[in-house]
Amino acid sequence: MDKAQLSHTAQQLLDCLTRYARADEEISGLLESLDGILRDAIAGRIDQPLALSDVPGAYLVVEGSLIKYPDLGDAYARFNFAVTGDDARLKRLSGGT
User: What is the pTM of this model?
Assistant: First the structure.
């Protein structure tokens, strides 16, 4: 697990969620649900990959009503791959091989 990458992706997702939270109640709720995980990731307090089921919001962002925010979807995917230890997908998403 690359803590620097995790911190970076967490900050990007936090920024994106914060930007939309005032205008969209569902995003505000998602931000509230993810706040602790994001803050821990930014501070470097996550040492082991989390299970997918421990990261709220996947359905809302990928298939639900928040799909209308592609930048949110991208930021969520990057964070999700980083926090769950899916380095291969994160690398592909980031343009690596």
Answer: 0.88
